[in-house]
Amino acid sequence: MFIIHIKETNTFISTTTETPPHFPSDSLLFLSNKFQSIFRITEILIFSAMNLFGFLLILTLSSIASAYEKFDSHLLPRPLILEYPNNIEIRFKESDEYLQLLCSSWRFAVETNNLTPWKTIPSECAGFVKDYMTGKAYNFDLEMVSKEAGIYARSIQLVGDGNDVWIFDIDETLLSNLPYYADHGYGLEVFDGHEFDKWVEKGLAPAIESSLKLYEEVLGLGFKVFLLTGRSERHRSVTVENLRNAGFQNWDKLLLRY
């Protein structure tokens, strides 16, 4: 600290450095050392606190990580009733509805001959075809066709000249090959002529009942009956035997393929 001391002389002014009367130099030194010590202790405490905080933070994170790794959800109580999304049933219904429409459309295109030549049914329609062939729908369709054919046969006035002929196909018209197709995926497999011939040679094809009724009705009306088939001539005897065993009698001609 600088003190300006003016002596009572005429022209002399001197500037000296003195210690304030109430703060002797020893006291200032003591206070300075005291403050330095306090600052140093504070600095040490802050540094120690920061280190301790860092250690606790690492310890906490390690504990959390360890607990997460050892966590087993199976140990927790589990609900007795599982709640599924509300729209899951709707999705299944929409999927079933779409498949039903797709396969129905494909079937209609086949029956109206609007498809290019095909070898197998669509794989996604295997269940649809099986349900149709083994359910009530297939028999209902057969009965409907036979009923309409019978109405037409009764509407014709026969003149008795022997020229009124009713022509039946054999496979899938009089005789059913459903047992064969059941063993071959209901059309999922590519048709194998050799395998089908083996089935024909067994002579076990059952009659289509609605067709058998129509067959007997047509004979009773006085029509001649011709049977026309794509079966080979070498299968004539087994075909005749199969037809008779299934209930078909008294046809006029059986035409086979050479």
UniProtKB/TrEMBL annotation:
Query: Is Signal found in the keyword set?
Result: yes
Membrane spanning residue stretches: 44-68
**Highest taxon of the source?**
Eukaryota
Q: Note whether Transmembrane helix occurs among the keywords.
A: yes
Keyword annotations for this protein, in alphabetical order, are: Membrane, Signal, Transmembrane, Transmembrane helix
Which Pfam family, just one, is annotated for this protein? Answer: Acid_phosphat_B
Report what the protein is called: Acid phosphatase
Organism from which the protein derives: Tetracentron sinense
Q: What is the lineage of its organism?
A: Eukaryota, Viridiplantae, Streptophyta, Embryophyta, Tracheophyta
